[in-house]
Amino acid sequence: MAAARTARTASLEQLLAAKEIVVTCGAGGVGKTTTAAALAAMAAVRHGGRVLVLTVDPARRLADALGVGAIGNQAVRVPTAAFGAAGAPPRGELWAAMLDTKSSWDDLVARHAPDKRTAKRILDNALYENITGRFVQSHQYIAVERLYELHGEGNYDLILVDTPPSRDALDFLEAPERMADFFASRFLRLLTAPYRSSVVNMASKPFFTVADRILGSQFLQDITEFFSLFQTMAPGFVERATSVSRLLHDHRTAYVVVSSLEAAPLHEAEYFVDALAGKGFQLGAVVLNKVLPAYLLDEPAGTAATRLVEDAEAVAARLATAGVGEPAQIVRVLTEVAESFLRFQVVAQREAEQRAELGVATDVLVPVPYFETDIYDMAGLLRLGDHLWAPR
Ligand SMILES: Nc1ncnc2c1ncn2[C@@H]1O[C@H](COP(=O)(O)OP(=O)(O)OP(=O)(O)O)[C@@H](O)[C@H]1O
Ligand SMILES: [Mg+2]
Questions:
Q1: What digits encode the pLDDT tens for the residues 165-188?
Q2: What protein residues have CB closer than 5 angstroms to ion ligand 2?
Q3: Residue 21: how many CA atoms within 13 Å on its side-chain side?
Q4: Ligand 1: centre distance to CA 84 (Å)
Q5: What is the number of the ligand 1 atom nearest to the C-alpha of 369?
Q6: What separation in Å is there between the alpha carbon of 31 and the centre of ligand 1?
Q7: Are 12 and 35 members of one domain?
Q8: Nearest residue CA, atom 6 of ligand 1?
């Protein structure tokens, strides 16, 4: 077991073979959802077994391609025909689910409330939806909670988990502890004080005197009632949050940090990689997504583009004699193409510098090219997955 705990993997292919849960994380818009879906599709095709991808808010077309458009929390099997159309019959099964925060909260309440009546009172409370929806890190907590649930059901050999966009990449990892802390917090005790003790004289407490004046006593009473009911779920919630947290730290769980080669997402990726190590989570790989092709860094190609711009008229004259078209039009096309190449070359050079400076220690650093179109169907996922799979 100790060997498995410390075993290093050299590729995402090996990582997916060795783990039960792989979580994609990173800055907003870098490709977390796409990477999770592509890795899941690849694992189903190449490794087999039952693979689940738990997505958060996928783009509409991707959700449709996975068949999770309208179904919400329920996992659905991606039809084999979808793979057939992409020319890659799967050895295993690909399942997909989309995170449905509202119904996951309802399930949690039903599970942790001391009895059905209390559960109903919580669900019927006017503030329930608003408060649970706005709860700090509600989305993050629900994502890890669903993961825990799905993993515990034991129906899948591998679960790929997408993470919600958040202000801080650590929100996801810390969500269970924060939830447990919340139930033990002074804030919650303060809010529920009038309910817990009939001897507390609300008017004598400065907090309630002020709150009553600002919020009105009905609203204050609703809040107090809500949190008092909510607190009845504390023991179950705290225990559960502890188990969820343990699963995130488990050696069967690894994290794939996704980033583009732009300064801000890279900075966040570096911070995240450090934080993972510092908090005892296992980094599996770093994916550098949307990277420009290496041929853009080719110096002779840059020289050729520069000469095309400078000598456009002479080149156009020669091409015109070969019957390509009118010299003026050829000049326009040549200049446009060569200048565009040079502009891309500048960006590619900047990317290469960013990559050289990347202060991240990982055995698995996987560059993935920027495709000319968005990735929204099985063929696109597998094409991207091919680049992720094994180092070239
Ligand atoms: N390598 C790539 N080439 C081209 N397009 C890509 C690539 N990777 C991702 N995309 C596209 O970029 C967009 C954002 O990707 P995605 O939704 O996976 O990002 P995300 O990190 O999950 O975003 P969010 O933080 O909003 O959840 C999508 O339209 C996706 O199709
Ligand atoms: Mg996403």
A1: 776 767 888 888 888 887 777 777
A2: 32-33
A3: 27
A4: 24
A5: 1
A6: 4
A7: yes
A8: 374
pLDDT digits (tens, 9 = 90+) for 352-367: 888 888 877 778 999 9
Are 94 and 55 in a shared domain?
yes
Each residue's pLDDT tens digit, 196-229: 555 455 555 666 666 667 766 677 777 778 888 8
Ligand 1, atom 5: nearest CA belongs to which residue? 374
- 268 CA to middle of ligand 1, Å? 17
Residue 265, domain extent: 2-185+245-292+370-389
Who wins on pLDDT, 391 or 80?
Answer: 80
Same domain, 178 and 304: no
Count of domains forming the chain = 2
Q: Which atom of ligand 1 is nearest to the CA of 380?
A: 31
pLDDT number for residue 6: 47
Q: Which of 34, 167, 268 to mutate to test the pocket of ligand 1 (most atoms within 8 A of CB)?
A: 34
Residues touching ligand 1 (Cβ under 6 Å) are: 28-34, 59, 165, 289-290, 368, 370-371, 374-375, 384
Q: CA 268, 164, 352, 292: dihedral to nearest 10 degrees? A: -160
59 belongs to a structural domain: yes
